[in-house]
Design goal:
Rossmann fold; binds uridine-diphosphate-N-acetylglucosamine; undecaprenyldiphospho-muramoylpentapeptide beta-N-acetylglucosaminyltransferase activity; cell cycle; 7-stranded parallel β-sheet
Amino acid sequence: METKNNGPRVIISGGGTGGHIFPAVSIANAVKELRPDAEILFVGAEGRMEMQRVPDAGYRIIGLPVAGFDRKHIWKNFAVIVKLLRSQWKARRIVKEFRPQVAVGVGGYASGPTLKVAGMMGVPTLIQEQNSYAGVTNKLLAQKACKICVAYGGMEKFFPADKIIMTGNPVRQNLLANKPEREEAVASFGFNPEKKTILILGGSLGARTINQTLIAALDTIKAHSDVQFIWQTGKIYIQQIKDAITTATGEAVRNPRIPAIPNLYVTDFIKDMASAYAAADLVISRAGAGSISEFCLLNKPVILVPSPNVAEDHQTKNALALVDKKAAIYVKDVDAMKHLVSTALATVADDDKLKTLSENIATLALPDSATIIAKEVLKLIDKP
Ligand SMILES: CC(=O)N[C@H]1[C@@H](OP(=O)(O)OP(=O)(O)OC[C@H]2O[C@@H](n3ccc(=O)[nH]c3=O)[C@H](O)[C@@H]2O)O[C@H](CO)[C@@H](O)[C@@H]1O
């Protein structure tokens, strides 16, 4: 693991979901923009999403054999402890060989061993917390961290107040710069720019309730041929959704397009989110913190369906911060089956409503987060 030049050497660690990975990528991009000579190494968890998405973004990553604790069945954690010890040992070797001048943790369990070991070896550390509720790994790393970058107020309940910096969540630069034109973006999905388009997102992993709601609404979707639907299902749900569509239509699905339902595009994961956002007149989404930052910065009208299955119900808190300012429409997970599709169809047909939602959400955007964080990262290197 040789370093090629004398530029700053930065380790960025974390992952598990897009919510941790994409902020990490945008911090890396911002560091590179400020210091093109920087050497950046990612450290993630073997077998997790970052091992594919980080190289896709053009960065090197090494995986640790780390796994998450089973918080419900404590006795099942013997193997997890062994993996944690092996991960610490491997992280130690990585830090020794790469000799980072600073280590950045973005949450998710891979960042635990990496930042702990880096801190113990005298490397300054910075952590970034995306949510209004601090993740367990970040809480453990906070005592040793030099700086803690957050996106919500009131984080002193979790972290030492003197280390907190309000930066907002970093958003990938390619979503904001050189945005594609709407027409071109709609056409890239094989759709008609004259018609309205709804983008349905389940977060980086997909959302069961949203998917079930859409399956139940296939007839309604087909009947509304004046509206086009781009549906991101998540990797684990795609096969069952294809099967359900085949059962409903009697035709095999050649995803992304469904011959029997020409106004529907279905995919497990969208790589080109810039085009997906540019194509969308309305978004339906879970309320992950990173997604919300993107909607704010891109001024997207959105219907939020927060996941009820996350720590301290933090997605509902994320969503209500917007809903309280009339900057998003709120549909509860339990009400999705009944109201989600009808609300979306009524909203997308109402240009005044779309305009108001767009104007209101724009006021909540926190721009330049990645650059602000990158500057803090580089300052830690210069610290005596
Ligand atoms: C179930 C769960 O634990 N969710 C958490 C996870 O959400 P999740 O991993 O879904 O993360 P976010 O909603 O924050 O961000 C999703 C990211 O994935 C990207 N994307 C999404 C779909 C796609 O097809 N292509 C694509 O690139 C989005 O553009 C966005 O950058 O991390 C968030 C940030 O810590 C938390 O707030 C969420 O509660």
